[in-house]
Each structure stands twice: as structure tokens, then as C-alpha cells.
Amino acid sequence: MGGGDEVRNKQVVLRQHVTGFPKEEDMAITTSNTIKLKLPEGSAGVLVKNLYLSCDPYMRNLMNAGTGMPGYLPNYTPGSPLFGYGVSKVVDSGSPDFKIGDLVWGITGWEEYTVISSTDGLTKIEDTSVPLSYYTGLLGMAGFTAYVGFHEICSPKQGECVFVSAAAGAVGQLVGQFAKLLGCYVVGSAGSKEKIDLLKNKFGFDEAFNYKEEEDLDATLKRYFPEGIDIYFENVGGKMLDAVLVNMKLHGRISACGMISQYNLEKPEGVHNLVNVVTKRLKIHGFIQSDHFHLYNQFRDLTLRYIKEGKITYVEDIAEGLEHAPAALVGIFKGKNVGKQAVFITRD
Amino acid sequence: MGGGDEVRNKQVVLRQHVTGFPKEEDMAITTSNTIKLKLPEGSAGVLVKNLYLSCDPYMRNLMNAGTGMPGYLPNYTPGSPLFGYGVSKVVDSGSPDFKIGDLVWGITGWEEYTVISSTDGLTKIEDTSVPLSYYTGLLGMAGFTAYVGFHEICSPKQGECVFVSAAAGAVGQLVGQFAKLLGCYVVGSAGSKEKIDLLKNKFGFDEAFNYKEEEDLDATLKRYFPEGIDIYFENVGGKMLDAVLVNMKLHGRISACGMISQYNLEKPEGVHNLVNVVTKRLKIHGFIQSDHFHLYNQFRDLTLRYIKEGKITYVEDIAEGLEHAPAALVGIFKGKNVGKQAVFITRD
CA angle, A256 as apex, A253 and A258 as ends, to 5°? Predict the structure, then answer.
């Protein structure tokens, strides 16, 4: 890193704002930019080398035109690199909290090197006895989302009946395992035979079904939950939510983490059964993990312990190389990934 | 009451289960039944004479076929009288909690006399310095619903922006006044000029609009809430809910009290904007006042004080005579009532 060499900085940039399903061609790989491996004098940020990137459903929303939602990340700018969660190594630091060589996870650019001017959202990685990629998912945003959404938002109790959609995804697989560890009855839905096998045989869900093979989701849910659902961990929205509402128990809780089935539709599907919210006194609670970040260390310590005790397992789907990042990101909206989708850039 | 005279017991019975909008002809007045004005030996209930009946939107749901929702009242049985909230006078009592001559409010039959076998849901009326009819609304279920739904479910803070639909109804008018007393900015919607005048000039709402005259509810809400809505008190559902979701602020709260616009539709309208629940981390909470009944005395004392201090006002729409009860009930689904709809049966 000596003294600020200027190096190539390969990037994934957004070509144009997206409507409908994103395509690989909505993004471009550019190799024309360079970056000086030294922060400008007086910077309070960090310069990082990116090792892993995370592909997450919320990124679809940032591809829309407009400035984005207040209190959320801003939308992407055509011609500029995408950004999202990643695992990175500090190359230069103007922050007293990070030193050169530190491993961190947080929001970074879809590029080889990124200057992160505010380190507020950056977390130092202390425990490297687990795969580093886990900090893009299991021990990062997705895992923490599962923890907050299940334990904090749903107030679960032993023996309750839990349904998780997109259950083989980055968040869902962990929600199911947390629920099993608490002694709940857990059913998951996913979109392929391979994923259903994972849910039942690897993650220990009590039951799992392929929603693409079910003609009547209401009847399907009645089959798996003859007494009704206490807790629904909502990742998909649309038709599934409609069927769930009819099958919720009195005082049921729905934590709304995402609605991936709706992100690419110009007009979202209508949800018709909301009257159940009144008659069954349901609680639907949208949340974002970062609002609960004071709980992160507690989550991380618990999850690390579970991993080491063999009580939690995690499946990742890792694309190799920044140039494969666009395909990996597009793939999650088609359900191509099996497990947490990440992109490997470089070892160190 | 001497020794158990047998008297005529006029009743409003359900003729058949209802689909779509209820009609007066779905109910019938019968005068052929008699009742003995004495409880059977060993009864732990009460025999009451009904003075006022309350017409409430939830009653539409009880007209459906089927047994009704668990944890709710059972559905009505064709050939039997309807039931609902009312104000009554105890004529005979087998309960240590009630004595002959006591005034009570709670669930009773749509008839002149009713035997109430379990007194669990019955509340003794202590303060009769206000109109007795208030215990069908302002000091009964509707008022308590406003209190619970606003103060308990929405966690309101001074200065927040509050929107109330069906704002001139039994619940809405009080929600708006509670919100004003807390120092909120309050806008209400209703369906006639007369109701809008009431909202602005009698109940002290900051603004009010006639939803029937608005072509684009999203634009309407943006006009009244340029910064967005903190709290929505949901009484109607459907299109209004859809427009509200787009206009909610981050961390907004929706207390779902009812969805009257949907009760008479065979297929409820689709709500398309639920993704806002995730992106804005909204809370939607269905509730029923009876789950919070431990707060009733607190509510009653506060509201009685406000009434006596002239800080709260209440508009009632009272039909005269049991034979007009079917029309009064049907009317609330057409928005014919101005204020709380009740039915007067007899003075004492």
C-alpha cells in the first residue's frame, strides 16, 4: 500500500434505472477507473479493499428512479457503482475505531476498493474462526434480520406454530433454525425441490413445501397448520400473504421483512384478506434490522456459540469474481440461488 | 315484575344469513313470543329490560353464514333475535354483582327483554348524570374502542399527524377529539357535507374532507399531510387504506379498528401498497376493545371528566322504537347515520 499507489478499481455500475425484473445488462463492469490507495489528508473515514459482496432483495428497490425512501439507503445513480453490504479489509484509516488490516462488514461499493467516508454503519469483525463470508449473511445483515424479526418483533413462545416464506433464503433459513431452537413447530416454503430438501433435511424444519406446485395456498396452509399460524415471517408478499392472513390464529404476529415477489411488478398484487387483521387482532410489523443495532453483539455472540456447538448451519451460494456479481444479483429475483447469495472478490 | 308475570317480548330476528349489503327484509319484527319476568330457580344470570340498542359495523359480520370467528361473538342464527351492545335495566338477578333496578351496558338481545346467562361482559352504570344513551356509544364499546385504539395501540405523541377515516362515526368522532386534546394535528374523512361540517365545527378537527368528492385519495392525503401521516385510525379499509399506506411516515402506526367498506363485498378490494409496511417499518395492529377491558374504568373516568368540562362532545343518531332497529342498522352501511347510531326502546 506504500504511500498511496494508484491502482485500477474495477466496478459494477448501474447503467440505467430499472423497471420490472432487473437484467444483467442493467449493470456494467468498468475497469477504466483508478483509485489512490491513501485517504485524503484529514479524512475521518476508511479506505477498504472489498473481499465479499452480499446480494440482497432490498437492492432491487434502490434500482428504481427517484431518490429513494427517507431513512433508507438512497437509490443508485446511473453511471455510479452499486453499493450494498460486504466484507472488507481496511487499507487506510482516518478513524480512531479502525486500523489498517482490520476486517469489517457494512455498506460498501460494488468495486474493488471503496472510500467509506462515514464509518457509522461499519462493524469490526472480531471472530475469524468462521468463514469470512458469514459476515455477508449469517453473522451480518441477513442473520441479524432473522434474529430481530423473529425474537424482537414476533415475541415467540415455545410450542407456537411458525411459517416462513422464502425459507431457504439468506434470512429464512436462520429464522427456521431459531424457531426450532426455541421449540416451535416450523414450516417453510420455497420454490424448488432442492430447497425443500434443504429445509427438511439440513435446517430441520418440521415441514416444507414448494409453493410453485401448490394450486391453492390457502388449502396448503390449512394442511400444515390445521390449528392456524401464530407467527408468519413475511419475505414474499402478494398471494402468499393473502393465504396466510386467512390462516392466522387469534393474536397472530407477522413480521414483515420483505416482499420479494412484489419488487419487480409495476403494479403490485392486491391483498384481499386484510379484514382478518381486525377480526383476529393481528399485528403486522415492518422492520429493518438497523433500527435495532444495539442488539447486534448479543445476536452475534449467541449465533457464534450456536455455530460452534453445531446447532446452526448455513448454506451459501457464492459467485466467484466481481464480473459475476450482476448475474448473481439478478438471480435472486428468479430464485436461482440456493442459500445466501454472495460474491467473492479476493482473498485479502 | 311481581312474581314473574308473562309478557309479550317483541324481537328483531334474523330471517336468513346475508350476502352483500344487508337489507331491512333480512330481519323481521316478531311479537308472538312471551317471556316470564322471573329467572329460573338457580340461575346465576340476569333478566333485563332493554332500553337502548347500539348499531355497530361488526354486526354485519355476524349476519354471515357459519359459526363466526373464534374469540369473537358467534354469528346470528336465522329465526333467533340479533344481539349487540345495549343499555338495559335489571329486572331479576341471580348474580351477586347486580340487583334489581341496576342499569347495565353490555351484550344483550334485540328484543324487549333478555335473559343474560353469563354476566361476564356486563358493566354496571354508576354515573347517570349524562344521557343513558351515551353508554351505547361514547361511554360504551365505541368510545372505549376509540380510547384503546388511539391511546394504547398507537402510542401517540403531542404534535403528531393523525388521520381518522369514518371520522364522524361512533368511534371516529372521539378519536379525533382525543387526538386534539393531546395536541395532535387531526384530519378526518367522511361521506357527506353535513358530516364534514360536524368534524370541523363541532369536533374540532383541523381539517376534514368528503372522500366521495375526491378523485385521487393519494393526492388528497398529500394535500393535508405534506409531511406524511404518523397515525392512521383505520375504520374503512380498501382504497383508503391503500392511499394511506403511500402517505405514512417512517415508523407510522395504524390501528385497525374496522374495515366497514369491505364488509358487504363478496370479494374484498385488493390493497396494493403493503410494501410500504416494510420500507417504512410500519406497524398495523388489529385490536378489539374487550381485550383491554382492564382499562375501562380509567377510560370512563377520564371521559366523564372531559364531558363535564365541556372538552368532549358527542353526536348521536337515535332511532325511536325497536321496529325501526333494522332500518337503523342497515343505514350505517350506507353512511346514513350522522354520529353514533342507536335505537331507543323504552324509558325504563
Answer: 155
Interface list for chain A against chain B, based on CB atoms closer than 8 Å: 61, 69-72, 237, 241, 250, 256-259, 262-263, 267-288, 291
The answer to whether B86 touches B105, Cβ cutoff 8 Å, is yes
CB-CB under 8 Å, A274 with B237: yes
Claim: this prediction has a pTM higher than 0.80: yes
Candidates B322, B318, B320; CA nearest to B341 is B318
- With 70 as the cut, is the pLDDT of residue A2 above it? no
What are the grid coordinates assigned to A318, written together? 457464492
State the smallest CA–CA distance between residue B279 and chain A in angstroms: 7
Tell me phi and psi for residue B214, to 5 degrees: -105, 130
Q: Where in chain A does DSSP place strands (E)?
A: 6-8, 11-14, 27-30, 34-36, 46-54, 83-93, 103-109, 113-116, 123-124, 161-164, 185-190, 207-210, 229-234, 248-256, 283-286, 316-320, 340-344
In chain A the domains, ranked by start, together with CATH numbers, are 6-137+314-344 (3.90.180.10), 144-290 (3.40.50.720)
CA distances A321 to A110, A141, A338, Å, are 11, 21, 18
Tell me, what's the pLDDT at B1? Answer: 42
A280 chain-B contacts, CB cut-off 8 A: 69, 71, 286
Note the pLDDT tens digit of each residue in A100-142. 999 999 999 999 999 999 999 899 999 999 999 999 999 999 9
C-alpha span between B316 and B240 (Å, rounded) = 25
pLDDT digits (tens, 9 = 90+) for B164-182: 999 999 999 999 999 999 9
The pLDDT, as a whole number, for residue B4 is 75
In chain A, which residue's Cα lies nearest the Cα of B249?
Answer: A70
Share of chain B above pLDDT 90, in %: 88
Is the pLDDT reported for residue B105 higher than 70? yes
Cell numbers given for A84 = 450494498
Q: Give the max Cα distance, chain B.
A: 67
Structural contact between residues A105 and A128, judged by C-beta atoms closer than 8 angstroms: no
> Nearest-CA distance from A124 to chain B in Å?
27
Nearest to B286 among A257, A280, A287 (CB): A280
The sign one gets for the Cα dihedral B76, B83, A251, A158 is: negative
- State the ipTM, two decimals: 0.88
**Nearest one of B329, B338, B337 to B56, comparing CA atoms:** B329
Q: Which three cell numbers stand for residue A200?
A: 427438511
pLDDT the model gives residue B66: 84
Q: Predicted confidence band at A70 (pLDDT cuts at 50, 70, 90)?
A: low
A255 beta partners:
A233, A285
* pLDDT > 70 in chain B, percent: 98
**Residue A296 cell numbers, joined:** 447486534
| For residues A246-269, average pLDDT | 89
- Print burial letters for A41-68: b (CB count within 10 Å at least 16), e (below 16): eebebbbbbbbbbbbbbbbbbbbeeeee
- CB distance A280–B267 less than 8 Å? no
Residue contact A72–B275, C-beta within 8 A? no
End-to-end CA distance of chain B: 13
Which chain B residues have a beta carbon less than 8 Å from that of A282?
284-286
Nearest to B284 among A259, A273, A284 (CB): A284
- DSSP one-letter string for A265-328: -SSPPPB--THHHHHTT-EEEE--GGGGGGGHHHHHHHHHHHHHTT-----EEEEESGGGHHHH
Q: How far apart are CA A89 and CA A104, in angstroms?
A: 6
Write the pLDDT tens digit of every residue in B178-196.
999 999 999 999 999 999 9
Average pLDDT, chain A: 94
